[in-house]
Design brief:
Largest sheet of chain A: 3 strands, antiparallel
Low-confidence stretches of chain A: 1-58
Number of helices of chain A: 6
Strand content of chain A: under 5%
Largest interface: A-B, 36 and 34 residues
Strand order of the largest sheet of chain A: 1-3-2
Helix content of chain A: 40-55%
Mean pLDDT of chain A: 73
Oligomer: homodimer
Radius of gyration of chain A: 18 Å
Structural class of chain A: mainly alpha
Order of helices and strands of chain A: HEHHEEHHH
Number of strands of chain A: 3
Chain lengths: ~170, ~170
Amino acid sequence: MTQQRRVQARRRAPSPPLPGQDAPYRPADTSISPSGAAQQEAGASEAPGREDDTVVAMEGVYIISVAARILDMHPQTLRKYERLGLVRPGRTLGMLRLYSTEDIRKLRIIRHLSDEMGLNLAGVEFALAAIQNLLTMQQRLAAKLGPEAGEQVREELHLLFESLNLPVDQ
Amino acid sequence: MTQQRRVQARRRAPSPPLPGQDAPYRPADTSISPSGAAQQEAGASEAPGREDDTVVAMEGVYIISVAARILDMHPQTLRKYERLGLVRPGRTLGMLRLYSTEDIRKLRIIRHLSDEMGLNLAGVEFALAAIQNLLTMQQRLAAKLGPEAGEQVREELHLLFESLNLPVDQ
DNA sequence: CATGACTTGACACGACTTGTATCAAACCTT
DNA sequence: AAGGTTTGATACAAGTCGTGTCAAGTCATG
């Protein structure tokens, strides 16, 4: 009843747009995806002027500066998340990080768990593991119990995610 | 692979057994349970000399000092948890907190989530809600799909809790 | 080859969280 | 009435976490 929210809403924009060396624009080439593709797509999703959550999903990979812009997160934060094992972006031949759209989606969930729900990184790790395990559990149950029971399980899981404020699209 | 553990193991015994006023022994009477019952039972589960997790479950209620001794947690910590809505102990007529064995069990889970797994309190709240919702989901599915499918669900949930390191006995 | 732009890892700082210590006041039992 | 305990409030120390900064390395371009 009392149950205060304890949402801190730290992070996010205490810093003016100072041109510090860590929020650049044009990425180095990738040597994996067709040369320059990441750069192009990143530019495309930035140009329309919409700023945050509702960026249209696009296929492709992004180097860290572009991924950071898309997510509105600090590049150092993304690096730290990788060090802690929360995400695992690919690498170019030159060892540059490459964030896939799947990584971006995962990072959005991480951002929600951290900012909106106030979890620390251990909690984020736990929640991600829980989501992952629940989804595979759903698969197994559907395989074992047949399609209609599987559908019931899917519905229940949907309700669960909803009541836990987990933005999982299944 | 790299994936370091990030277990901090803070709390727990940086303080010598100084006789500060907040770790007493004999509780005040309760006026709800038969007079002195809490005290007796607390004494019983302490006397055998075993110290921590494997205390045999007993029915009864405990005032905060006894509960704190049983759990090896600081009374102030228990009060703070109540303020945050994590536990909701009963009260005597004189407003003393009364912790049931169910509360004790819940507090053990909280302690595990916090100490062993490193979750902050927001994460603990999330995990507790997840556990609760999963258990009621299990009930609903068993009711809808019948006993054998219900048993399958129960098994899957057991595996889930296990792989998430959640000490839930179901 | 030289230059510029960018990323990399490492370190440090400030804000916040959290368990614990401390205090005066109120309560209960002897 | 006296002693012991709980209560709520406040304060402090240690840890967490996002972010700023730096030198060194990599890559494309002129």
